[in-house]
Design brief:
The chain has nine helices and six strands, in the order E-E-H-E-H-E-H-H-H-H-H-E-E-H-H. It has a six-stranded parallel sheet, sandwiched between helices. It has helices at residues 41-49, 65-74, 96-104, 110-115, 119-126, 131-143, 146-157, 197-200, 202-213; strands at residues 2-6, 26-30, 58-63, 81-85, 168-173, 188-190. By secondary structure, the protein is an alpha/beta fold.
């Protein structure tokens, strides 16, 4: 069965390079597409859904903002299973700061303020990170499209989703600072892991995936 992966905002398939799927599952990566400022998250999800072969059962995986987009895709074409990493499933799970940014329309400047604090802050914000994780975050920072970043934070801060797909699991780090675990109810909490748990704690993630996909 094909398993389609959506990375986090500003990231790419390297975020999943330590993921190992059980025998019988094929990994496919969906690349981010350029966006227009007035485009909605659901219309964007519709575009990305065209990269998926829905003529046969498939599994969809989303990380962080990619998890939110994966939920929107699942409203258009239903995956056999949905796997979410380091994300939120409903608008009520968003931190208050993000929701205020949406109401006050300060999403245009907030991402720049956060990223302007530099790599030490980003290592802390996305951490805890190992050495390879810090290198990866540094690479992602230098490739991030500012326009895409601002658009995505607008979508995050104004997300209105209230529906949670039935066939899904949510895996989250206990020390996630981007989307604090206390605000959501993941099926699996990885102790000591941060926002990039799929990379830094791949052994535990792979154990969960093997058990879930083989069931």
């Amino acid at each position: 069965m094909k398993v389609y992966f959506l990375s986090g905002l500003g990231a790419d398939k390297r975020a999943y390079e330590r993921v190992s799927l059980p025998s019988g599952f094929e990994m496919h990566h969906i690349e981010w597409m350029p966006v227009k400022w007035d485009e909605t998250i659901d219309s964007y999800a519709k575009q990305l859904s065209q990269e998926i072969d829905a003529s046969e059962p498939f599994i969809l995986v989303g990380l962080s903002f990619g998890g939110m987009v994966a939920i929107e895709i699942s409203k258009i074409i239903k995956p056999f299973r949905l796997i979410l990493f380091s994300t939120v499933r409903k608008k009520t799970e968003l931190p208050l700061l993000y929701r205020f940014a949406g109401k006050l329309r300060i999403y245009r400047v907030l991402p720049y303020q956060l990223f302007s604090l530099g790599l030490p802050f980003l290592y802390w914000f996305f951490g805890p990170l190992d050495r390879e994780g810090r290198i990866l975050i540094s690479k992602f920072l230098h490739q991030t499209d500012p326009g895409m970043l601002t658009w995505a934070f607008k979508q995050i801060s104004r997300w209105k989703n209230v529906d949670v797909p039935a066939e899904n699991i949510h895996i989250h780090g206990s020390r996630d600072r981007v989307f604090p675990v206390r605000l959501c109810k993941p099926e699996y909490t990885i102790q000591g892991a941060g926002h990039l748990c799929v990379f830094t704690h791949a052994a535990e993630v792979n154990f969960i995936l093997k058990r879930y996909l083989s069931s």
